[in-house]
Structures are given as structure tokens and as C-alpha cells.
């Protein structure tokens, strides 16, 4: 394959990454298409608070939990920001536990815990997944136990607290099988289903904590939990919403120091402003002002310069996917930017719509300058 084709395909893949309704877990696309000084500052502030609380690069973290909420309307780029934060955590250079989950369709607390365990990774450790379960962290855990199933069971039994001993033995067996030469993820999925998804919230939380306590005992004494689409629990019945929020509060309090031996935790929840305010009324002790949430941030709108920069990026990508010598003139690009700004005056928070509109305008500009696709000829 020649260099021109490689560049064209790479540009097309970035474009494809932004043709889907949510941000994809592809960092080069996310980084390239990120615009907005305010949004970049928010990401930087989130990362800095994570580093400060967990004291990354130092021998010991601050103990307990730092819980913050990031607010943004639908389409504002919450998922995009969540993936970027996960990337910053995974490249932090420490053995930080990282779990990132979107809870749309599964707002129940046990389902959230199950998803966090299925997505669990360690910073600096290459990803390895099977059967939609990330196995790399569990394989690393097995190595830290000397690749010895009996040692793993002994340590898990010590970490289980008030949980039944069967949970420790089932977990040790699941890890041994997914970390062995055959790399069988099915027992881990069965363990998560049996001890997390199908259990009551208290048992599920104890089991979740057993696993995190085991990681903390061995080597990973810091974790970051990213929960996107926190507003999805609105779909649950009213009584269930209260139970879910109460379970999140119990989780917070255990990680904040009520339960012993757990890693220091930085937890970020992404939510709409409307649900955050409603949830604060439902359970003020969790989300109310001056209680457990230490920081609340809002995703800022983009400005005129940001939209112009985004148009240039789409033009560049579309040009790289085609062949030809014609390029739009400056006045054509300025007119296109003005047209876009006129359409998004009252919706500069809605990044999903802005991306769609900017791409369509970029294609229109290139068509007007007779910029032909690869399958045609350049006039």
C-alpha cells in the first residue's frame, strides 16, 4: 500500500469515527476532532484533580474518595470527554485501576458494578479482551499472585470481609481460568452474573469491594471510576431511583473510608443538569450542595473560533480522502463558517449537531469548488 492510500484511509477512519451517535473509543479521532479552549481546560482540570487526589507518581495516595460531577446536555460531548479522561488515566504512568462505563439501558446499581468490572483496566498494561470482558487487569492480578491459584484464593478469602467464602473461591477460579493459557473468559462472566448482576445491591457491593481490596492489597492502591450517562436511571421507577442513588452513596462512603483496605478513588459522573438537580432533591446527602460531591463542573459551549477550526479540520480530512488540486478559497471558508454560526447561535453546546452540520458544510464547499472524490476526475 502506498503512502497516499494509507493517509487517505487513515483520514477516512477518523471521519467514520465521527459519523456515529456517540464518541468512539479511538483516541486519535477523539484528540484530532477536539476543539474548544473551555473544553480542553475542563479536561485538563479533571486530569489535574485526579493526579492531585491520587498523588500519581508518589509512593502513597491521599486516602478516601474524591467524587465530582460533570454536567452537559444531550449531545454536548459528555461521552467524548469521558473517553478522553479515561485515556489520560490509562497513560498516567502508574498502576492505576481504571473503569469506564456508560449506563444507558442498564441503570440498576448492580448492572453498573458489573459493567465496571467488565471494563476494568490497569494504566500502562496493554488491553486484552475476550467475550466483551477486559481481561488484562485480571491477568495482571494473577501474575502478582505468582500465577498460583491457591495463593490467589487465600488472598481473596482474606479480602472478602463479610462476604460468603464461595465468592472468593469463585473469583479465584474465574481469574485462574481467564489468565491461563486457554484464556477462557466465560467463568469470569458467570462470576459477574452470579455475584453482581443477580445479587442484591449490598452483596454486589461487597463483592465489588472484595475485588478492589485484593488489587489494593497487592499493588494497585488507586482507582478512577468514570460513570457516563448517570441520568439513565431516570428510566427506573421512582422507588428504584431512590435505591440506586442510596447504593451509590453506600459505595461512596465505603470508598471514602468506611470500609477498610480499599484503594483511594477518584470518581467522575457525567450527567445532564436537569437530572443532577432532581437527584439532589431525591437524595440531598449524596448530590446536594456541600455534601459528598466535592466539585461540579459544566461543559462549556464552543465559540466562533472553535467552529471555524472544526470546519478546517473536516475540510482537511475530506481532502485527504480524495485526489485533486483544487482547494477552497479563504472567502468561501469564511462564508461557510458564517453560515454555520447563523444556524447554531442558540445551540453551541450541542457538539453532536455541530459536527454533523460542519461536515455537511465542508462537503458542500468542496463540491462547489469542483473538488472531486477519488472515484472521479479533477476538473
Question: Short summary of the structure?
Answer:
The protein has 379 residues and is of the alpha/beta class.
Features of this protein?
single chain, 379 residues, alpha/beta, Rossmann fold, 2 domains, six-stranded mixed sheet, two-stranded antiparallel ribbon, 16 helices, 8 strands, 10% strand, disordered C terminus
What does this 3D model show about the protein?
α1 (3-17) packs across α14. A six-stranded mixed β-sheet has the order 3-2-6-7-1-8, sandwiched between helices. Strands 4-5 form a two-stranded antiparallel ribbon. The protein has two domains: 3-17 and 302-368, no CATH class; 37-298, Rossmann fold (3-Layer(aba) Sandwich). The protein is built from 16 helices and eight strands. The model is unreliable at 374-379 (pLDDT under 50). The protein is α/β, with parallel strands linked by helices and 379 residues long.
Amino acid at each position: 500500500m502506498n503512502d497516499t492510500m494509507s493517509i487517505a484511509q487513515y483520514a477516512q477512519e477518523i471521519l467514520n469515527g465521527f459519523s456515529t451517535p456517540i464518541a468512539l473509543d479511538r483516541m486519535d479521532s477523539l484528540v484530532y476532532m477536539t476543539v474548544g479552549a473551555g473544553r480542553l481546560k475542563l479536561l485538563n482540570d479533571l486530569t489535574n484533580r485526579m493526579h492531585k487526589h491520587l498523588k500519581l507518581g508518589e509512593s502513597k495516595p491521599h486516602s478516601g474518595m474524591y467524587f465530582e460531577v460533570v454536567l452537559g446536555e444531550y449531545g454536548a460531548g459528555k461521552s467524548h470527554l469521558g473517553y478522553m479522561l479515561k485515556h489520560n488515566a490509562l497513560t498516567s504512568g502508574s498502576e492505576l485501576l481504571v473503569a469506564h462505563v456508560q449506563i444507558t439501558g442498564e441503570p440498576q446499581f448492580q448492572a453498573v458494578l458489573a459493567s465496571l468490572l467488565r471494563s476494568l483496566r490497569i494504566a500502562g498494561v496493554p488491553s486484552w479482551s475476550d467475550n466483551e470482558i477486559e481481561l488484562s487487569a485480571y491477568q495482571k492480578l494473577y501474575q502478582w499472585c505468582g500465577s498460583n491459584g491457591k495463593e490467589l484464593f487465600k488472598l481473596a478469602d482474606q479480602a472478602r470481609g463479610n462476604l460468603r467464602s464461595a465468592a472468593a473461591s469463585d473469583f479465584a477460579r474465574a481469574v485462574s481460568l481467564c489468565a491461563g493459557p486457554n484464556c477462557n473468559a466465560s467463568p469470569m462472566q458467570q462470576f459477574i452474573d452470579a455475584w453482581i448482576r443477580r445479587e442484591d445491591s449490598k452483596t454486589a457491593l461487597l463483592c465489588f469491594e472484595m475485588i478492589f481490596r485484593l488489587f489494593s492489597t497487592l499493588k494497585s492502591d488507586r482507582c478512577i471510576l468514570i460513570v457516563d450517562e448517570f441520568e439513565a436511571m431516570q428510566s427506573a421507577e421512582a422507588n428504584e431511583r431512590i435505591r440506586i442513588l442510596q447504593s451509590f452513596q453506600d459505595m461512596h462512603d465505603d470508598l471514602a473510608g468506611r470500609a477498610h483496605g480499599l484503594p483511594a478513588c477518584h470518581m467522575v459522573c457525567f450527567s445532564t443538569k436537569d437530572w443532577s438537580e432532581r437527584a439532589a432533591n431525591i437524595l440531598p446527602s449524596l448530590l446536594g450542595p456541600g455534601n459528598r460531591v466535592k466539585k461540579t463542573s459544566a461543559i462549556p459551549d464552543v465559540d466562533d473560533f472553535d467552529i471555524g477550526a472544526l470546519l478546517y479540520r473536516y475540510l482537511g480530512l475530506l481532502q485527504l480522502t480524495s485526489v485533486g488540486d483544487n482547494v477552497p478559497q479563504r472567502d468561501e471558508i469564511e462564508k461557510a463558517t458564517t453560515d454555520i454560526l447563523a444556524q447554531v447561535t442558540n445551540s453551541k453546546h450541542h457538539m453532536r449537531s455541530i459536527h454533523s452540520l460542519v461536515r455537511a458544510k465542508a462537503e458542500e464547499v468542496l463540491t462547489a469548488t469542483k473538488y472531486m472524490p477519488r472515484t472521479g476526475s479533477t476538473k
